[in-house]
């Protein structure tokens, strides 16, 4: 991990001493848009197509940017039509001053559409602190990486790191990557080059919507993977994919999964329940089957949140009572006094939460 030094420059000290941060940043950025008293900023210096509806932005970072470990996520803040949005992306470190931000357009996704279609060379983005547990360890006897769609981005980051440190020379790694069509495959040439360069790296790609379609992830794909109980398995993809990974790789020594879109596990569950918000003293009626966070936002309640993927814990609150169901893997929870991530859970009964 590369951590940039955080000493204050004389210009920063002077600016801090005479004006407030906001004003100081305003004037500093007139001189150089990457300068700031405190903000982690990055400038888009290259934009290229990574796959169909997916772009890769090369970002030059400033001194406040905290480089996460490979596989972690960063909050990215952008202003779209005057509204500030926060989204979470997995970045790949290219060198000490540059990271790669790869973004796939998602349906109705304001931020992903803006990043794919509107960003231009020279645009400035703001970043938050990195987080996430999908990190490399030194002693993994075997690493199994499973990705679907844009879930490939943390895997790229991990593999770039293993390549950079030449750990791939000795570290057995399997990458299995599911996409719909050939045009959706991102970074395929790089993965094929790694497979040629390192005998310990195995790469398989599956196309589920081509004429001679491959199968979605199932038990057959475990054939050839030995000692899963000794392996570290990381998976990233839509929630249905992640739920399958949970079911198939439950015996893995370490299993970490991240879902970037939520399925509805509760299609048979219709209707509304009441949610009592103890701190804001409100009782609202919300639908079953969608995330509690989205339901509250639709009623103009704006709970704190970050990733909307169940990773950052920013939306977590205490559930006093009631039943919930995970939108990632369908598990239900009825225990009182429970830690609840409202971005990835739906209400099953009336709920009382400390919000
Ligand atoms: S918003 Fe990140 S865990 Fe819910």
Topology:
Elements lengths: L9 H9 L2 H11 L8 E12 L2 E8 L11 E8 L2 E13 L2 E7 L5 H9 L5 E4 L15 E6 L3 H13 L8 E7 L8 H10 L3 E7 L24 E6 L1 H10 L5 E6 L12 E6 L4 E6 L4 H7 L17 E6 L2 E3 L5 E2 L4 E4 L3 E3 L3 E3 L2
Parallel strand pairs: 7-8, 7-10, 8-9, 10-11, 12-19
Antiparallel strand pairs: 1-2, 1-6, 2-5, 3-4, 3-6, 4-5, 12-13, 14-17, 14-19, 15-16, 15-18
Bound molecules: FE2/S2 (inorganic) cluster.
Describe this structure in words.
This protein has 7 helices and 19 strands. The chain has 355 residues and is of the alpha+beta class. It folds into 3 domains: 40-127, Translation factors (Elongation Factor Tu (Ef-tu), domain 3, Beta Barrel), CATH 2.40.30; 143-259, Rossmann fold (3-Layer(aba) Sandwich), CATH 3.40.50; 272-353, Ubiquitin-like (UB roll) (Roll), CATH 3.10.20. Strands 1-2-5-4-3-6 form a 6-stranded antiparallel barrel. The longest helix is centred in the middle third of the chain and has 13 residues, at 152-164. Mean pLDDT is 90; it is low at 1-5. The chain binds FE2/S2 (inorganic) cluster. Residues 305-308, 310-315, 341, 343 line the site of FE2/S2 (inorganic) cluster.
Keywords:
Elongation Factor Tu (Ef-tu), domain 3, globular, five-stranded parallel sheet, disordered N terminus, 3 domains, binds FE2/S2 (inorganic) cluster, Rossmann fold, 33% strand, six-stranded antiparallel beta barrel, Ubiquitin-like (UB roll), single chain, alpha+beta, 355 residues
């Amino acid at each position: 991990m590369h951590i940039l030094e955080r000493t204050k420059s004389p210009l920063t000290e002077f600016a801090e001493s005479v004006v407030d941060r906001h004003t100081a940043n305003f004037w500093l950025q007139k001189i150089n848009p990457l300068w700031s008293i405190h903000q982690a900023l990055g400038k888009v210096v290259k934009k290229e197509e990574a796959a169909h509806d997916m772009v890769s932005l090369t970002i030059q970072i400033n001194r406040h940017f905290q480089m996460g470990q490979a596989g972690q996520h960063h909050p990215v803040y952008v202003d779209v039509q005057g509204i500030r949005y926060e989204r979470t992306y997995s970045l790949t470190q290219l060198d000490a001053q540059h990271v790669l931000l790869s973004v796939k357009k998602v349906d109705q996704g304001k931020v992903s559409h803006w990043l794919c279609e509107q960003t231009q060379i020279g645009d400035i983005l703001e970043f938050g602190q990195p987080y996430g547990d999908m990190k490399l360890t030194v002693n993994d006897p075997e690493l199994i990486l499973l990705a679907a769609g844009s879930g490939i981005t943390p895997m790229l980051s991990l593999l770039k790191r293993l390549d950079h440190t030449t750990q791939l020379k000795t570290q057995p790694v399997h990458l299995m990557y599911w996409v719909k069509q050939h045009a959706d495959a991102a970074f395929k040439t790089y993965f094929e080059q790694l497979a040629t360069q390192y005998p310990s790296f195995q790469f398989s790609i599956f196309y589920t919507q081509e004429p001679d379609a491959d199968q979605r992830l199932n038990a057959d794909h475990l054939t050839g993977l030995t000692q899963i109980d000794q392996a570290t398995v990381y998976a990233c993809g839509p929630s249905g994919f992640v739920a399958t990974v949970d079911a198939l790789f439950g015996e893995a020594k370490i299993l970490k999964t991240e879902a970037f879109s939520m399925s509805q596990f509760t299609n048979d569950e219709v209707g509304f329940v009441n949610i009592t918000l103890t701190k804001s003293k409100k009782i609202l009626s919300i639908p079953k089957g969608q995330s509690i966070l989205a339901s509250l936002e639709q009623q103009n309640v704006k709970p704190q949140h970050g990733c909307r993927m169940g990773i950052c814990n920013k939306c977590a609150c205490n559930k006093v009572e009631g039943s919930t169901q995970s939108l990632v893997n369908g598990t239900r929870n009825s225990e009182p006094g429970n830690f609840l991530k409202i971005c990835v859970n739906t209400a099953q009964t009336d709920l009382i939460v400390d919000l």
